Amino acid sequence: MSIVETEVEKPAAQGAAMEITVSRQELVKELTATQSVVERKTTIPILSNFLIEAEGDRLSITATDLDQAIRTSAGVKVKKAGSCTIPARKLYDYIKLLPDGEISIKLLENHWVQIRSGRSNTKMVGMARANYPQVPEFPTIAVTSISAAALKTLISRTIFAISNEESRYTLNGALMVLKAESIAMVATDGHRLSFVEKAGEVLDGISGEKRVLVPRKALQELQTLLANSDAEKVEFADDEHTLFFRVGHRTLSSRKLSGQFPNYEAVMPRDNTKFAIVRSSELSGAIQRVAQFADERSGAIRLRLESNELKISSQSTESGESEDTIDTPYSSDPIVVGFNSTYILDFLKALGNEGEVRLEFKDSQSAGQMRPEDPDAEYKSRYVLMPMRI
């Protein structure tokens, strides 16, 4: 189900007189925020356009690829209210090249749009506003306010574990779990699973538990919106088919992923009693060095824990062999486990390669687990890794 249905034809006169003046700086900022959603290679030409609507003293800009949409706005001088659609890439590239100052945008006949700035005068070929798809409106009920900082952290600690395989549809996003006093996110590609939770996050309007699957593309857009906003809260809402995130004056709507996310609680190791604690930066450095000599296809490295040492090694017939040793308190039986080096580095990078991590094992055939070693941490992270035969 697409989040957008094509609109009923509107009278041709609608928006036929639009004329506005806007600051170039403001316009570039908002076009930058929306242009990433625009379809580059679309079979539906109108999707390559921005929808521009002027009313009161606001200019609203919308972009959609039918799976998701971004709507933003800017303060403008509206001489004549109306709307038009303009080729997104061409408009964005052109406006960026103009000097700072006022820009006037005027709709002409046959959907042409005139853009004037100083001594520059350009006319662009637009398309009929009536053909632009209807983008769903942000719901007015059941809206939850989420901390922007929390959402940013949750996404950065899970997005890398989302599956790239299109056939594994329910794994092409992250599961967001909202409770009255906590928020969590989990993602898996079948080889590894990343879970992060923030307790003490009071979410109004949530009773019991609410679970939603957020597509990877929406999480990427949300990451960008959060990085370019100083909003402290994100308003979240959903309906039967669509997820909505409002960050300041910008709204992202996305088609929901349907289907059943795997039972992630069942995957979490319960009896990984052998563990070592090491500095994230030290572990990351050692793995990066050793991984240079791992098999190129599998990226497999070997972790060996024995008498107060963690040995990290790899070998391949093409490039040779390498070993690094890290001192760590350990007195249990020796254990050797193989893992994909990239998977471990992804997690350490998401933690900023800071602090200490705990590596937990049961045996060489069972899933290993990693987590930050900080009992007072604001975020509880767990990272589960399937072992490799090496």
TrEMBL record:
Main location as per UniProt: cytoplasm
Organism phylogeny: Bacteria, Pseudomonadati, Acidobacteriota, Terriglobia, Terriglobales
Domain DNA polymerase III beta sliding clamp central: from-to ranges: 146-263
Family membership: Belongs to the beta sliding clamp family.
MF term (GO), any: 3'-5' exonuclease activity
Protein name from the UniProt record: Beta sliding clamp
Protein location: Cytoplasm
Keyword DNA-binding among record annotations: yes
UniProt source species: Occallatibacter riparius
Domain of life: Bacteria
Entry function: Confers DNA tethering and processivity to DNA polymerases and other proteins. Acts as a clamp, forming a ring around DNA (a reaction catalyzed by the clamp-loading complex) which diffuses in an ATP-independent manner freely and bidirectionally along dsDNA. Initially characterized for its ability to contact the catalytic subunit of DNA polymerase III (Pol III), a complex, multichain enzyme responsible for most of the replicative synthesis in bacteria; Pol III exhibits 3'-5' exonuclease proofreading activity.
Record bears the keyword Cytoplasm: yes
Residue span(s) of domain DNA polymerase III beta sliding clamp C-terminal: 267-389
Bilayer-crossing regions: none
Pfam families: DNA_pol3_beta, DNA_pol3_beta_2, DNA_pol3_beta_3
GO BP term (any one): DNA strand elongation involved in DNA replication
GO cellular component terms, semicolon-separated: cytoplasm; DNA polymerase III complex
Keywords: Cytoplasm, DNA replication, DNA-binding, DNA-directed DNA polymerase, Nucleotidyltransferase, Transferase
Start and end residues of each DNA polymerase III beta sliding clamp N-terminal domain: 18-136
Quaternary state and interactors: Forms a ring-shaped head-to-tail homodimer around DNA.
InterPro entries membership: DNA_clamp_sf, DNA_polIII_beta, DNA_polIII_beta_C, DNA_polIII_beta_cen, DNA_polIII_beta_N
